[in-house]
Structure prediction request, 272 residues.
Amino acid sequence: MKILVTGATGKVGSRLAKRLAQRGDQVSALVRDPTRAADLREARIDLAEGDLLKEDSLTAAVRGVDAVVHCAAFFRGATPEQAHAVNDLGTQHLADAARSAGVKRFIFTSTGLVYGANGGLPAREDDPCAPTAPYPASKLAAERFLLALEGLDVHVLRLPFVYGDGDPHIEEAIRFLRSFPPTERISIGHHADVAQAVTRLLDTPSPAHRVYNVVDDEAPQLATLFASVGAPPPDGSEGERGYALLDGRRIREDLGFKPKFPRLADAIAAGA
Prediction:
């Protein structure tokens, strides 16, 4: 399969693109600056220069592609305007180019944060979404555009907090989560399991649903997550946030997804 991956110099996209290449797919990566992608070249990934904010630059990148896996996003530090421009309008530009090029499948990696705060209950894919922060609001707007778009086979994967594979995500998130209660739970997913979800969706001819939560089996407490990188627990100074946890039954039942690392402890034990 010929696959274009966006965000391939980022945390999720870089690891995903390399796993797709390792399994034998012909992978190209949309990059703004090829000089930052030497490791992708070493992994036998082709580079397609382009920018989500420049519609004309996307035409060549999607030509002849079987599937697009869209991971690129502006996350932490984005203003509402930047989040909207990259995550919403940029997605629209890419989807329009993919549809015009006859791309067979378009997979959008969204976020479980689109559900907003619901008291920490498990959220299913058909539950209402009420995000307030710019990042998940822009991702939800992009989801709604894609799912209403005719002529393109779109599927959405709502990801949890992604970790593993040497990714410093846990260490980097500590300063943002420091004021949360230590007992608050968080849905997580290992990079290997994000890649598994993508490949199962790529390989299934007619998925039963268009939106899937991706999540491992156990939602650890933040104190446990912090301890995994040797950090003291959060102080809980701002009280419970109650972000939704992800219900992962649909992808298991429909696509046969089974986490390689069901729990954080399993990844730690495997040195992964």
